[in-house]
């Protein structure tokens, strides 16, 4: 068990330093890169909070879809093969639902303000689940 | 256009997102500035003034300067080094821009291509054109409200003119077609070893829906919001960034501007976030061009996949190999998921 403070709290402190102390003193390209670094910390914060649950949900769906066990990378490679050969496509509702949820989960971590994500939400696409 | 130091041009230039000598060390700055002063003395017999780097273009450097009362732009490979494998040599780029100008396409006038004696590497100098290239400003700033609804039509007209240029007599550009371009990017994905089921789905669809072959045309190769210059008075006033020009399927240039990544938050307007496909297509046809809408759809989806693989494979590899360890490069890798959600929406038929 790792000791305190938690990763979440440390990240938030680094984020606050960037926003409140570093950024106001920077200009030009350094200010731009500081903004990018801040976005990266936000990705990490969301990944810490969401990815463990998302990965479990993805794992469970892949095992059921492919009918076999394995780690996420192996199962995803198997899925890629089946898509590449045409054995599975979007006419398969289970596959379609799986890809929608996985992709919604990735974008929820990487860039939840992306317009394509908001459009998908407006079209009623389901969010990724937090598996257990 | 004659320019003096108190002219509106300078105010416009100051409003732009720009940074002077941003990525150069101080010794390098001094060397470059003295090289540019020597270039101005030799080429214009006049002193150099207001040398500034324009923002953007990790693969290209653009500098503005004033000499003898005229404003110019210098385009060169980063720090004068060799171009990336896909980019045209600067002399060919300048020659293609010249050919486009002759055909009546709105482009900046090329003044000269730099030679060894200029000592700044592969570069050329062209006339400065006043206007905006930052996509988000074009889409949001009130000064563009009047011209914004006309842009898709102007894009269609411009592309019809570009694709009507006879390719005989042009510099010998690389040829690339739909299948070749698709397999190049499929190969990048394959060699990365990281699984992307949505990219695989797109590749399968693209292989099953290859467009029919058309006679090759001059294709700009990067026609999108960000590479067009827009003025509040005239709308589309120049087509920039010709380093990816090639011979190929003209439908590529009609698909690429509709890739969702180039809509900058205005998803409901497919052409660059400012217009409708129907407007661009109608103008293209009215100007004598023929459109194969199955092919433009193919190029939209391939374009989205290409940007996704650039982010999720090529940028990631540049970052992880240490070739470019910057936080900017690394974070672009995480933009692949934006293209995955767009590709899924396209393949399901929702875009």
List the helices and strands and how they pair.
The complex is a heterodimer of chains A (132) and B (351).
Chain A: H1 7-22, H2 28-66, H3 72-84, H4 93-110, H5 115-122
Helix pairs in contact in A: 1-2, 2-3, 2-4
Chain B: H1 8-15, H2 26-44, E1 48-53, E2 61-67, E3 70-76, H3 90-102, E4 110-113, E5 123-127, H4 135-140, H5 151-163, E6 175-176, H6 178-192, H7 197-208, E7 217-219, E8 228-231, E9 235-239, E10 246-248, H8 251-255, H9 277-286, H10 293-320, H11 327-333, H12 336-348
Parallel strand pairs in B: 6-10
Antiparallel strand pairs in B: 1-2, 2-3, 3-5, 4-5, 7-10, 8-9
Helix pairs in contact in B: 5-9, 6-7, 6-10, 7-10, 7-12, 10-11, 10-12
Summarize the structure.
The complex is a heterodimer of chains A (132) and B (351). By secondary structure, chain A is mostly helical.
Question: If you had to describe this structure to a student in words, what would you say it looks like?
Answer:
- The complex is a heterodimer of chains A (132) and B (351).
- Chain A has five helices and no strands.
- Chain A has helices at 7-22, 28-66, 72-84, 93-110, 115-122.
- In chain A, α1 packs antiparallel against α2, α2 (28-66) crosses α3 (72-84) and α2 runs antiparallel to α4 (93-110).
- The radius of gyration of chain A is 19 Å and the shape is elongated.
- The mean pLDDT of chain A is 96.
- Chain B has 351 residues and is of the alpha+beta class.
- Chain B has two domains: 8-127, Phosphorylase Kinase, domain 1 (2-Layer Sandwich); 145-348, Alpha-Beta Complex (Aminoglycoside 3'-phosphotransferase, Chain: A, domain 2).
- Chain B is built from twelve helices and ten strands.
- In chain B, α7 runs antiparallel to α10 (293-320), α7 (197-208) packs across α12 and α10 packs antiparallel against α12.
- Chains A and B meet through α2, α3, α4 and α5 of A and α7, α11 and α12 of B.
């Amino acid at each position: 068990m790792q000791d305190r403070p938690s990763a979440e709290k440390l990240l938030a402190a680094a984020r606050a330093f960037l926003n409140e102390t570093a950024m106001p003193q920077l200009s030009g390209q350094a200010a731009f890169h500081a903004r990018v670094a801040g976005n990266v910390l936000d990705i990490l914060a969301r990944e810490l909070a969401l990815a463990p649950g998302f990965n479990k949900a993805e794992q469970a769906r892949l095992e059921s879809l492919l009918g076999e066990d394995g780690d996420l990378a192996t199962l995803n490679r198997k899925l890629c093969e089946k898509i590449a050969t045409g054995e599975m496509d979007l006419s398969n509702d289970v596959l379609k639902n799986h890809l929608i949820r996985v992709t919604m989960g990735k974008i929820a971590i990487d860039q939840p303000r992306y317009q394509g994500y908001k459009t998908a939400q407006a079209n009623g696409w389901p969010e990724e689940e937090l598996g257990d | 256009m004659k320019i003096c130091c108190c002219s509106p041009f300078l105010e416009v230039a100051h409003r732009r997102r720009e940074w002077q000598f941003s990525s150069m060390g101080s010794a390098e700055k001094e060397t470059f500035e003295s090289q540019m002063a020597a270039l101005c003395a030799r080429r214009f017999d006049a002193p150099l003034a207001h040398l500034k780097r324009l923002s953007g273009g990790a693969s290209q450097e653009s500098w503005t300067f004033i000499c003898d009362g005229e404003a110019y732009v210098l385009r060169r490979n980063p720090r004068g080094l060799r171009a990336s494998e896909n980019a045209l040599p600067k002399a060919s780029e300048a020659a293609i821009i010249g050919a486009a100008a002759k055909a009546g396409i709105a482009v900046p006038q090329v003044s000269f291509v730099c030679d060894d004696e200029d000592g700044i590497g592969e570069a050329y100098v062209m006339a400065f054109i006043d206007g905006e290239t930052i996509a988000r400003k074009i889409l949001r700033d009130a000064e563009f409200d009047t011209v914004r609804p006309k842009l898709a039509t102007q894009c269609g007209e411009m592309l019809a003119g570009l694709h009507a240029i006879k390719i005989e007599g042009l510099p010998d550009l690389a040829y690339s077609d739909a299948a070749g371009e698709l397999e190049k990017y499929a190969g990048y994905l394959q060699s990365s070893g990281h699984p992307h089921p949505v990219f695989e789905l797109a590749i399968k669809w693209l292989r099953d829906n290859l467009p029919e072959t058309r006679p090759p045309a001059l294709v700009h190769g990067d026609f999108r919001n960000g590479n067009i210059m827009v003025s509040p008075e005239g709308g589309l006033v120049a087509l920039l960034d010709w380093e990816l020009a090639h011979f190929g399927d003209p439908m590529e240039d009609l698909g690429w501007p509709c890739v969702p990544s180039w809509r900058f938050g205005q998803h409901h307007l497919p052409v660059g976030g400012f217009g409708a496909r129907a407007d661009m297509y109608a103008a293209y046809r009215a100007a004598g061009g023929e459109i194969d809408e199955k092919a433009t759809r193919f190029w939209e989806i391939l374009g989205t996949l290409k940007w996704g693989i650039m982010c999720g494979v090529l940028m990631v590899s540049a970052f992880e190999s240490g070739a470019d360890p910057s936080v900017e490069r690394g974070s672009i890798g995480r933009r692949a998921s934006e293209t995955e959600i767009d590709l899924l929406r396209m393949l399901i038929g929702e875009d």
